[in-house]
Amino acid sequence: MAWTALAATLLLGIALRLAHQNDVYTRSPDERVHTAFAARIADNGFGVFPTLFAEYEANPDNWTLPSPARLGHLVLFAAMMRATGLRDATAGALVSMWCSILSLFVVAWIGVRFFSPWVAAASVFFLSFSVAELGMARRAWRDLPFGLAMLLLTYVTCEICRKPRRIAWYPVFFLLGMFLMLTKENGLLGYGLCGLWILVVQVRRERWIGGAALLLGGGLLSALLSAGIWTLLAGKFATVISAYQHSINGVLSSAWAKQYESCPWYSFLYVLWLVGPLTAAMALAGTIVILRRLVWDKIDTSWLADFDSCGVIVTMALAFVGFTALAPNVQNLHTMSPADGTYSLLAGIGFCALLGFVRDRMPAVDFRILLMLALLAAGVEGIRDYRVFTSTVVRNGMEDLPVAFIRSALRR
To answer: What is the reported pLDDT for 320?
Structure first.
C-alpha cells in the first residue's frame, strides 16, 4: 500500500504543477530581467556575457535587480529557449516546473533510500501541496533550479556520509557545489554545511585524513574553477564581485524589500504555519524525532536513517529556514526554496512518527482504521493548502511571495 500511495502522490504533485503553467498573466521584474538575459544568451552564445556585465554595471537603476553573475539558472533558461524556440518567460517557467517535478522524485528517493516508503509518500505529499513550490513552479525565477541542486547536494552528502571512502560520489558533490555557487549567493552556505558534515564524519568517525584532504582540495578547486568561469565570461573577476555587491546591496536596501520582505523572525514562521499548518506541525515533530531519536519512550524509530543522514537533512532544513527568518529583508517564501525538500522530509518523518506513537499507545485500535483517519486528515490539509494557493497566489496575480503579500491576501 505504501508504494501505491507514493506513486499516487507523485502523480498528484506532477498534475498540480502542470495545471498552473498557463495561468500567469503578468511577470515580475526579476522574471523580465532573467528573460532578457537568457534570450540574449540563447541568440548570441556565451560571448554576450561581457556586454551583459558592462550594461549592468553602467546603470545604477539595474542594481535592485538580479545580476548576470547568476550563471547557473541563466544557462538552463537559455538552453530551454534553444530547445523550445521560445524567447519569453514561458521558457523559464518550464525550467522551474521541471525542476519542481524532479524535486518530487528526489524527495521520494531520499525517503525510500534512507527511511521507508511511507516516509517517502508522506514527504512527497507535503511537497506536492507546498504553496511556495506551486507558486514558484509557474514562474521564471532561479529558485527552483537552485532548490533542486541543493536537494541533490543533500542526497549526495547522505550517500557520502554512509560510505565516506566511496570516491565516486565526491566529483558529483563538487560539481553540484559549483552549480550552487554560480547560481545564487547563498549557495556557499549549503555547500559549506554539507562539506563540514562530511569532514566531521571523515575525521571523527573514519579517522581518514586522506579523505579530509580530498574534500578540502576538491572544495578549493571547485571554488577556483567557479571563479575562473566567472572571469572567463565577465572578462574580469573584479567585475563579477562588483556586480554581486551592487545586486545584494541594492536588493536588500531597496524600499520594496524593506516594506514587504522585512518582519520579525517569528512572523516568518507564522507565515509557514498559515500556508501549511499540518506541514509545519509535522516538520517540527520530525525535527524533534531526529534530534532526540527516541523522544517518546516506546515509539519505534528503527525506520530512521543512520545518524549522519538524519543530521544532514535536519541541518539543511533548519539552516535555510533560519536564514530566511533571521537575515534582513529576505523574508520571502522563495528565499526558503533550498529547504523545501528537506522541510517536507521532516514533515513526512514527523507524520509517520506520530502514527507510530498513536499505534503504540492505542494497540486496541485497528491500524488500518488509524491509517485511513490519518490519510483523511492529510487529504483535508492538502485541499486546504491548495485553496490557499489558488486564492492568495493565483487569483490575486501575485508576482512574488513575500510575507507581507501572503498575510495581506489571507486576511481578505
So the answer is: 96
How many of the other CB atoms lie within 10 Å of CB of 304?
21
Check residue 45 and give left, alpha or beta (phi > 0: left; psi -120 to 50: alpha): left
**341-364: average pLDDT:** 86
Over residues 259-287, the pLDDT tens digits come to 888 889 999 999 999 999 999 999 999 99
Q: Which helix (H) or strand (E) holds 198?
A: helix 187-200
Sequence length of the chain is: 412
* DSSP state, residue 301: -
In angstroms, the CA 178 to CA 188 distance is 9
Q: Can you give 59-128 as a three-state secondary structure string? A: CHHHHHCCCCCCHHHHHHHHHHHHHHCCCCHHHHHHHHHHHHHHHHHHHHHHHHHHCCHHHHHHHHHHHH
Q: How far apart are CA 392 and CA 192, in angstroms?
A: 35
Answer yes or no: are the C-beta atoms of 126 and 344 closer than 8 Å: yes
pLDDT at 364: 62
Which residues touch 193 (CB under 8 Å, ≥6 apart)? 315, 316, 319
The predicted pLDDT at position 255 comes to: 83
Reported pTM:
0.94
